[in-house]
Structure formats: C-alpha cells, structure tokens
Amino acid sequence: MFTTTGSRGLYKAPLSKSLLLVLNGLTVMLTLLPLYQHMFEYNLQAITQHNQFWRFLCGRIVCLDIKDSFCSSLLIYNFRIFERRFGTRKFASFLLGTWFLSALMDVLLTQAFQFLFDYEVEELPAGMLAPVFSLFVPFYKSIPKMPVTQILGQIHITNKSLVYIVGLQLLTSSPFMWLLAVSGLISGALYHFNVLKMQKLVFVPVWVSRLGRCTLEPIFSSKQPVSETPIGMGATLDLQRQQRMDMLDQQLLFAQYNEARRNTRLQPQGGLLQWTRLFPSLRHRGQNQPVAQPQPQGQAHASTQQPLVDNSPASEEQVARLVEMGFSRIDALEALRASNNDINMATNFLLQH
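^ that's the sequence the OP posted. Answer follows.
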C-alpha cells in the first residue's frame, strides 16, 4: 500500500516498532476491559476545572477507538522513514517536543473555540494523535513527490497520495478531530522549523537515548532484511528465487531503457507492467534536446558508434539522497546505474520494488 519508504519493514526503526506494538496492545486491552476506559479519556473539563493533569498523559497516549488506532498505526509505519533518516534520538525528540507543544495548543484552541462560538469542548479523541498529525509537516517538506499514474487523465496519483488519504480518514473519524489536527500541524511546524529554538528546549537527553539503546532497542529492533544479504548465506530456496526474479526485473527495465533511447518514437509495451506509464521521464527525456547539427559523412559514421548509455559513476550526492530515503547503498547504486544516473527514475524504480 505504502511505497514512499520502500520495502524494508521496520528495520532500523525500533521506536516506531515499539509505538506500534505497545500502543496497539494497550488499545486492545482497554477494548477488552471497558471498565478502565474512563481513566484514559482525554477530558479537558476535568483537566482545567478539577486539575486532573494526569489526564494529559493518559488521555494523549492510548487510542480508545479501534479505527483511530488503526489509521494512526498506518501513519506511524509510513513515517518510520524519519527515524531512519535522522536517527532514533532525533525522531524521539520530535515526537516528545510536538507532544508537549500540542498539549498546550489543545488548551489554547479549545479556549479560542469557546470564545468565538460560545461552545465548550469537554472531551477530545484520546490517543497520540496530535504528534502523528505533526509528522505531516516534515513529510510534506522532505519527502519528494513522485508521479505514479493518472485517473481520467487529470487527477495525478503520486507516492504520497495514499498517505494523505489515510490522514483524511483519521481527520473525519470524530467531530473534534480537526482540532487535534490543527494543533498537531502547528506544533509540528514550530518544532520542525525550530521556532524560538524549540529543538534546544525540548529534546531527549543523551543519557536517556543511551539507556534506551541498551535496554529497549534489543527488544524492539528488527533483523536485517534478507534481500540485503548474499544469496548463499542461509537463504531458502524461495528467497533465492525471489531475488533472481528481482534481478531479472532490473535487467528487463535496463533493456527497456536502452530500447527507449534508441527509438525516437516509443511504442506501447506489452505485458502487465506498463513501464513507460510508470516512468514518464523515459517518454520525455529526448523532447528537450537541442537539434543536432549536420555533420560530415566522415564524422557521421563515428558518431553512430558511440555508446548510448553513459557509464559514468553515480555521484555521492545522489547516492546519499537515496540512502536518506531509507534505501540501502547497494540498491541505490544499482538503481542509479540502471537508470543512467537519473535520480527521479532511480527513485521510482526503488519505490516499485
């Protein structure tokens, strides 16, 4: 479903894995034990009027609605790319900072809503929803948008469309979910752009990060995917076949790319996968080329013998960009080599695999 972050699972994302397991486990427990659900309600009236500040912690951690828990889990799984890119400590600092900022924003927004519309919001949806909405800020700013297909020739579907659809589904699940969404987006923007030096005020200390690395990371860490290991190192026969199919698929894409470079007019390709539709750069690569100047006959024969594919090595900047997106260095080098160092087509190829 989600192709933005590749297919590496929860590898190098122990915090995301712990959030998925622990929070969903608590949601299931509270569903089976409804007697204790009132302790985890996000009741703002009890906080402001009865000084029950402990509800900030209990009411903003565990979701009481299964649908909210499911949608937020999908978003956390997709946003695990930020833990790979920035590291677990910075990712935890972002969640911690936006959690505190959004708690303040919740109170301010509810007071403003009461002042403008003379309506008191007594209770908001429970769960760690505002920090999840805050992750849409770096998602919008940092993750590149790659076209995938079109609907009716007008509506463009990208690798980020399904993420926004899940966020919209979560937004419309409760009457006052929009308030948590606004609170999360504001807090995410404040922390992401380091307004008033928020990143230096609220962060995870180094000693806490080291303690979690020694105690929790061995429990929630995931093993290295088999696709990044050599074929002969304990891989089963099915995995070996799958890896060979991936290699053949890469060779097929490379052959189709060479064929597209040779022909001035592309013909529609057969088969189930229409690669020319997935990679629009193959269709438009030669349209903006300058008109070739007439050459003498002696030079025309020599020019036709030049290689069609540029074999220059990939730049470290392109490799670093792909690695930051969550792909391995080996896969990034292979994709850049197969796409003639075209970063957009290499990213598209990696997202489809």
